């Protein structure tokens, strides 16, 4: 089968499409004929350490959707022919292995491409907004980099939960594109200069929950923009800034909570722990059409390098999807 591999060093990445052996499902795994896979910026960011030791090669791709063609001996909730979506290491391949506890039935309302870009971004958003963030209806949600895949998912989930959403972006055009999804306040900026406008928009209340998908360059500004008992979720550092000042007086006085969101060190059981709740609380919104994954650009399998370059250049609002070769 065709499969993409990537070598990441401290300064660069190299892609290679290989003829790889067909994987065999383990006792608790599904073998899936992939139809589409979603790109995620984190797997291409130097320094994230998602691909093992620098200089080594690894199959890439993290999520996708397809048809079950093989079932492990201990799997009872899926069968051959089922349409599924889920986290899938090595998803940029014709066939991939999903852990059965991390797989979800593909909603009939979604295309393959839409389903392929739902699992990681929306599960991350669910972790930030619901599991750890405890977002309530009527609260203010601030999203740094709202046009990113995680940003758009957080916007949609936040609106479904009844929150009021403020988003920052360096593109006024992208902010305008997100207004139909319910963006209440769009702040056109790439700089750490938005706290005053957040306070003005919230009538000096501040943001109850802040999603930081940008990095350390906006961390201190987020503290300034936070409401009393605000929660700050840290999910990425595309700016490459890994250290930031922390105003301990503000942290103390405002009773702030700061938490990280990452699957890097989690076991498959930990990753899967929120999936039953996610299916019960989020998929009904998907089936009803109130949440619809935003596919901004689609690329054919042979064009992964172009898709990667598009993501790294920030030329998208929502998700970039890779279509697999036809059967």
Fold topology:
Elements: E1 2-8, E2 13-19, E3 29-38, E4 57-59, E5 63-71, E6 83-87, E7 95-99, E8 103-105, H1 112-116, H2 119-132, E9 140-144, H3 149-160, E10 164-169, H4 172-178, E11 185-188, H5 195-201, E12 207-212, H6 219-225, E13 226-234, H7 248-254, E14 257-260, H8 268-272, H9 275-281, H10 283-288, E15 295-300, H11 304-312, E16 319-323
Parallel strand pairs: 9-10, 9-12, 10-11, 12-13, 13-14, 15-16
Antiparallel strand pairs: 1-2, 1-4, 3-5, 3-7, 3-16, 5-6, 6-8
Helix pairs in contact: 2-3, 5-6
General form: globular
Give the H and E element order: EEEEEEEEHHEHEHEHEHEHEHHHEHE
Q: What Rg, in angstroms, do the CA atoms define?
A: 20 Å
Low-confidence stretches: none
- In quaternary terms, these chains amount to single chain
| CATH level-four homologous superfamily name of the largest domain | Medium-chain alcohol dehydrogenases, catalytic domain
Q: Please tell me the CATH architecture of the largest domain by its name.
A: Alpha-Beta Complex
CATH fold assignment of the largest domain = Quinone Oxidoreductase, Chain A, domain 1
